[in-house]
Amino acid sequence: MNYLPSDETSKIRGQIDHPVIDGDGHLIEYTPLIRDFLVEDAGEEIAKSFDMMHGGSELARQVPLDAKRGLGMSRFAWWGVPTTNTLDRATAMMPKLMYNRMDELGLDFAMLYPTYGLTVTALPDDELRPALARAYNRYYAECYGEYRDRLEPVAAIPCFTPDEALAELEHAVVELGLKAAMFSGVISRKVPGAEDTRGASWMDTLCHDSDYDYDPVWKRCEELGIAVTFHASGQGWGSRMSRTNYVYNHIGNFAVAGEAACRSVFMGGAAQRFPGVRWGFLEGGVAWGANLYSDILGHFEKRNRETINHYDPANLDRNMIEQLLKEHAPKQVRERLDRLDDGLLMLCDPDEDPTMIDEFAACGVDTKEDIKSIFEQKFFFGCEADDPMNAMAFDRDKIPLKARLNAVFASDIGHWDVPDFRGVLPEAWELVEDGHLDMNDFRAFTCDNAISLFAGAKSDFFEGTVIEDYAKSLQADD
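Now predict its structure.
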């Protein structure tokens, strides 16, 4: 069967002179093969644990609603992959079919992230998790191996501990030859002392205030040329814990998880300690990135190690404030001026630990321009094609210091929010038609930013692919 692009897709491709890279598509794994890999590598008992996870929706339905709160159970995805569009369902499952349809979809190259393999980064079972990562990554390497000039499968790297992340990096990248990796930037941990209470947890964001040192992981990524791409869910924690409504939990969830990871990478100083690493925050769009960038700048301006002294209690003129209170305070306050020190204490404690006052110390930044540089050069934001807020990344007049954020075009094909794979490129093009992006913006969005993310970490990332020559020319220009 021949798969030909629509007139609309052909028209778009006729107006651009660069490749189109899907920075975050999805494949759908064939789970019987995953199970066989599990049995072969880890044994039947581990595979039975996978069976329970595989049938988790049925088990969840058996739990009474009033019991779910205490168990920390919330409504997760259901009916989340194509069905009516059977061709698209098969396309996401079969690498050869995806490969044959790339021109029809208007795509030159696609990064394919896991679907069922997303569970690897959030599964609390310490035995099943690493075994499942090995099975999924073996699947990606073996099933997609002959198609990697246009399709690049992304390894699933569990990182509940640095050691397991390092072990799977060696397996997936060094042994299997995969060259892209997916992490979770948020890990649910048990609250100390409440280990037996399922719902009692806190979110570890790995780079800041973690109980573990993840620097060896980022260092190994730097050595291997692996871009750290976070693809995490914000469902099941914070305000997204509805027991009955998946849409309620899903709205904004990728943005909140990406924001937590990005804030941690920045505040923890990882972006500065590992200059060769590029950090990608996927599927949440770029609007939250613009807000975080602006918010960090605002906090830095008012609370950096110099300006924080503006709020030092030692600088308060106690005699002046006492006199002003005598003159202007209500009678009830004047009658209690003998307790003035108590009235001045809250949020103004003079005994604050001086070693903890500079909260930007770990960031490795000295100026607002340093912050801008990190966001412009190190951070990348996966943006689904139909998100109108993608235009924010290119609107320098609305972003402080005229920064330009790295929005990366992402189809999300394979999942429920793409009812027809053929519509992805036209949806992205609407921003050009509506006057929000010019042709240079569209090039950056659909091509150059993805190259900067992956080839910025590994210069030969695109060697042997259909876009090798373009990637080399872009890197030469840089």
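The two ends are 41 Å apart (CA to CA).
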